[in-house]
Amino acid sequence: MTSTQSHSIVTASLRALLALTLVATLLAAPARADDPPPADSTTTDAPAADVAPAPVTDAAVTTDAPAGLTSTVSVGPNSRLTAVRKVRLTERSHNVMRSGPGDAYSIVGLFAKGTEFVVVTKSGDWFGVRLSTTETGWIHSSLCKEFDDLSDLEWRPNPKLYSRTGSFVLNGYAGAYAFDRKSNSLVLGGRLGYYIFDRLQFEGGVSWTHISRPAEIVESLFDLSLEAEKFHMLFYNLNFTLELLPGRQMVPFVTGGVGSNIMQGDTETAYNMGAGTMLFLSKRTAMRWEVRDYRFKSGAENARVSNDNVEFSLGTFYLF
């Protein structure tokens, strides 16, 4: 065998081997998704390809409720499921809706049988319902049917929250009184107040002090004399007190009013202003300290002088 013949045999063998390798590769490759199935193949149920899941949108999902009624559930992409409690009017053709949980409250409207409302609160036998985005009303439970159990909506007042409006206040105090900045004496007094609002108080008070002024030069008709003064002074006033931070344990306030001073047989009109702090020890009791300036005129008609009388006091505060 010549070299030319040997070379031809090797070349033919390599071509045959390459052809076999190509055939084996084609047989082992998976079928493509877009290749049509064979005509005689049997189709089976399979999930559809390239089907995107439906997006979650805000919607109302209906849940089962008694007596064929439905209750909606609010669904949002970023919120948890929250039940919307509702009632339906079932008794009369025209049902009265009131402004509060009781028959004494004013009527806010008449609604026909079958009308549905979203419940926002509950007080006893009354449901507080939403009439619109800005209005609410109250309906008695005998006039409507609950979609769900609404016992968890029962309104209960917070025992830590209370109002002082309409309450009376009794205040007794003692302190120091400076008459015209020249005489220091003891002062005793008391006040009775009334809360018009939680932060505004109207009060009337009466106080007593004994003035002891040092000797001063007093001019008479013919000569000069050195005289000292000692006398009792009774003064009363009507004031308004405004609490700056109501509802706290320590409450600062400002106060002011008008009144009269009775001394040496004369009555002088006065006005006062001051500030202080109340420290509540309980809901009904507190300590109260303040500084107050009483301003009035005194003296003979041709020699009237203005007096600034500063009072420092510490007292008790009882609310009832």
UniProtKB/TrEMBL annotation:
Keywords: Signal. SUPFAM superfamilies: OMPA-like. Residues 82-148 form the SH3b domain. Residues 31-52 are annotated as: Disordered. The keyword Signal applies. Residues 1-33 form the signal peptide. Gene3D superfamilies: 2.40.160.20, SH3 Domains. Coiled coil: none annotated. It comes from the Bacteria. Residues 40-52 have a biased composition (Low complexity). The keyword Oxidoreductase does not apply. This is SH3 domain-containing protein. It comes from Eiseniibacteriota bacterium.
